[in-house]
TrEMBL record:
Top-rank taxon, per record: Bacteria
Matches recorded under Pfam families: Usp
SUPFAM superfamilies: Adenine nucleotide alpha hydrolases-like
Family: Belongs to the universal stress protein A family.
Protein name: Universal stress protein
Matching CDD domains: USP-like
Domain UspA: 1-145
Species of origin: Anaeroselena agilis
Length: 151
């Protein structure tokens, strides 16, 4: 049923908790897991870009990549000893769109993610990325709220 599971992570407690739930689901259904961290990049701007666009300096992007790799490594620890296949990926682009594209292009059967991550916007009931996935992903999206223990 859930043989190919996508686990977006931003390193937040909710994202790490969602990864624990994803592991439990993958173990139950014999699924493979892809952990992904999206670096929102604006530095690869074409020469004809609009004057109001913002380019992030290369050094900042390198820091974001280093942080992303660290977040992936932290999330991978949750899958230590997991008998299925676990893959980690660092991707670039607008997170919501990038994740939906991955689901569509690569045929994921389930997305497991935290309700809200490290966004500074606290007034939203559902994070903007998880909200985007709920509306546009063609597969089930399991939104994990809180950080309760996983049984």
């Amino acid at each position: 049923m859930f043989t190919k599971i996508l686990v977006p992570t931003d390193g937040s407690d909710m994202a790490l908790h969602a990864a624990k739930v994803a592991r439990a689901v993958a173990e139950k259904f014999g699924g493979d897991v892809t952990i992904v961290h999206i670096v929102q990049n604006y530095y690869a701007l074409p020469a004809f870009s609009m004057p109001d666009t913002v380019a992030i300096p290369l050094s900042v992007m390198q820091d974001l990549e280093t942080t992303g790799k660290s977040i992936l490594a932290k999330t991978e620890q949750i899958f230590a000893g997991f008998e299925g296949k676990v893959t980690s990926r660092l991707e670039y682009g607008p997170p919501g769109k990038q994740l939906v594209d991955m689901v569509v292009d690569e045929g994921y059967s389930l997305v497991v993610m935290g309700r809200r991550g490290l966004s500074g916007v606290t007034g939203l009931l559902l994070g903007s990325v998880s909200n985007h996935l709920v509306h546009y992903a063609p597969c089930p999206v399991l939104i994990i709220k809180g950080t309760e223990p996983v049984d």
